[in-house]
Design goal:
Elements (H helix, E strand, L loop, with lengths): L1 E6 L3 H4 L5 H8 L4 E6 L12 E3 L7 E3 L1 H14 L4 E11 L2 H7 L4 E6 L7 H6 L3 E4 L9 H12 L32 E2 L2 E2 L2 H5 L2 H19 L5
Parallel strand pairs: 1-2, 1-6, 5-6, 5-7
Antiparallel strand pairs: 3-4, 8-9
The structure holds 6-chloroguanine (6GU).
The site of 6-chloroguanine (6GU) has 13 residues, from β5 and β7.
């Protein structure tokens, strides 16, 4: 899968993809992330990409011209399955959207900043608008990192049996059960007996019960 990201602060994204699971996905050639600095398409030698908004009001808006030029140039190389704009007024991201996006081949993600991007870019190029929750971030980069992480770990071959996505919270609309490791007794705090007995069928039953109980208690809206 190829993910292109257009941003005025691509440095913010670099370290997110340099670790652990996403690093392995890149090394295995399963995920290619291309960061593009929007300033490359600035309208003048001062690196300008934003301007005051029509009608007045605080905050700068990212201009049509650099965005349109960047998108058109990137589109000459490949056709994107989705052009995603990261924005707090987008559709709230969830596991289902992550699953769906993980099946695409080529994605372009646009990170906004300041007051956002000129509406005409949203009308004419953007195919999907994503928010990661009901709060405001100062830019779309951290939100894009969240989305890329959630997608990247779902790509076939990225996770192994030990880290399988099938047992993640949300994957079946249930929260994951509690987990334990050695020692079985720490400060008299005991690991549930059933996990120590080694009967796979009973363990699976127990985990399903725990998942259900946890979901009922914490996220009844998922049921
Ligand atoms: Cl995608 N962008 C910004 N700037 N703030 C957000 C967001 C995105 N999702 C939640 N808050």
């Amino acid at each position: 899968m190829q993910i292109h990201i257009l941003s005025v602060a691509p440095e913010l994204l670099e370290s997110s993809f340099a670790h652990s699971i996403l690093k392995r996905a890149k090394e295995k050639g399963l995920l290619h992330i291309h960061l593009h600095n929007l300033r490359k398409w600035a309208i003048n030698k001062h690196g300008q990409v934003d301007d005051y908004q029509y009608g007045g009001g605080a905050g700068m808006v990212i201009m049509c011209e650099p965005l349109a030029n960047a998108i058109e140039e990137l589109q000459q190389e490949k056709k994107f399955d989705e052009i995603i704009y990261m924005t707090p007024d987008g559709k709230t991201f969830n596991q289902q959207t992550a699953n769906r996006l993980s099946l695409k081949e080529n994605i372009l993600i646009i990170c906004g900043h300041y007051k956002g991007i000129d509406e005409r870019i949203r009308e004419h190029y953007v195919t999907m608008e994503i928010s990661i929750g009901d709060y405001v971030l100062s830019g779309g980069e951290l939100a894009a990192a969240v989305v890329v992480d959630a997608i990247g770990r779902l790509l076939p071959g990225v996770l192994n049996d030990e880290t399988s996505a099938l047992t993640d919270s949300f994957q079946d609309n249930l929260l994951a059960p509690p987990v334990y490791t050695r020692p079985a007794n720490f400060n008299q705090w005991q690991v549930p007996e059933i996990l120590l007995q080694g009967d796979p069928k009973k363990i699976e039953e127990w985990r399903n019960e725990q998942s259900l109980k946890r979901t009922q208690e914490r996220r009844p809206d998922l049921l």
